[in-house]
Design goal:
two-stranded antiparallel ribbon, about 50% strand, mainly beta, about 15% helix, about 325 residues, Lipocalin
Length: about 325
């Protein structure tokens, strides 16, 4: 599946239905602080605020979050196209957005299984310069952090702080490679700068560009981490509709190992707020000839704590067959 076969038609959908779809979206949306229940009472009075000064810090924080939810709920009535996602900057995580002066920290575990992973014995240090396919499994413990510097600028960092990978040997591989080749240690580590050129309106999608650097911290490893510098430049195009929010992503990158430029990650993401505590994300994401479908459910446990559960499923032979992920997202 080529990227232009997917992105081209959906880009037309974003623009063609933007104007006509918004009139139906004027229904009352959920508050953007979607862990808080929608309330119909008026905003807090000055007396209310003074009275609450004597309460403990935890109760004060809850009152502040509730007051913000009320105010933002009123704002969303005039901007229903933001009801699914709020007004934050889209991060590289599925259906996750960061606002100005907000710090997001995500701790998660990911398992990846691919029964037909491609490998070359010579690249693992075993001489034979030929491609083979065999089973591979990865376990990763990762940390992600993002900070909104302004309403338009955000930075993020992600690292697989511990990774273990095992590559099995193909029956047709007669090299000196062992039956299972294993490595463990620090995995991929990367950082991004994300900039929002203009916000979404009733008729115009939002445009975000991002610049990503993947650091070569594992020069002596073969199947985990990154051995050479990788640079990627990409864009996100996002538009909200009454039936959900679509985001299109495309990127172009440079790999020092290959010494050339090529298309990087591309994808389509759908986000739908199901209630004040639940949000659904569906996506198709790929890189070159690896294409996967992803489904994620997000549960707002508390105003600043979200549980994220997702899994990827391979759509092409080179993509991982199964890649579940579970994590907890904190907002400060």
């Amino acid at each position: 599946m080529k990227i232009h076969h997917v992105v081209g038609p959906l880009t037309l959908v974003l623009f063609a239905t933007a104007a006509s779809g918004q009139e139906a979206a004027t229904r009352n949306p959920f508050a953007p602080n979607w862990g808080e229940p929608v309330e119909t009472r008026g905003a807090l009075t000055l007396d209310d605020k003074v009275f609450r000064l004597g309460r403990d810090a935890g109760e004060s924080a809850a009152v502040t979050a509730t007051a913000q939810a009320r105010a933002q709920s009123e704002e969303w009535k005039s901007r229903p196209y933001l009801a699914d996602r709020g007004d934050g900057i889209h991060t590289s995580l599925f259906g996750t957005y960061v606002r100005r002066n907000e710090l997001l920290v995500y701790l998660f575990y990911e398992y990846t299984r691919n029964r037909d992973a491609e490998y070359k014995p010579s690249e693992l240090g075993f001489g034979l310069d030929r491609d083979f396919r065999a089973k591979r499994e990865d376990h990763e413990a990762l940390i992600f952090a993002a900070y909104g510097i302004t309403d338009s600028l955000a930075v993020e960092f992600e690292s697989a702080v511990y990774t273990t990978a095992s590559q099995s040997k193909s029956r047709d591989d007669f090299s000196s490679m062992p039956q299972t080749f294993r490595e463990s240690g620090l995995g991929d580590t990367e950082a991004q700068i994300r900039y929002r050129w203009f916000e979404e309106t009733e008729v115009r999608p939002e445009l975000i560009s991002f610049f990503e650097v993947v650091f070569p911290l594992q020069k002596n490893k073969h199947v985990i981490g990154t051995q050479d510098w990788e640079l990627n430049l990409g864009v996100n195009l996002t538009k909200g509709f009454p039936w959900g929010t679509l985001m299109l992503k495309g990127s172009y990158g440079y790999s020092a190992a290959e010494g050339d430029f090529e298309f990087g990650e591309y994808g389509i993401e759908y986000v739908k707020r199901l209630s004040d505590r639940w949000r659904l994300v569906l996506a198709i994401e790929g890189e070159q000839d690896e294409l996967s479908a992803i489904a994620e459910i997000q549960w707002k446990l508390r105003p600043n704590i979200t549980i994220k559960l997702n899994s990827g499923f391979g759509l092409t032979s080179k993509a991982p067959d199964f890649a579940p992920e579970v994590g907890i997202l904190f907002s400060f």
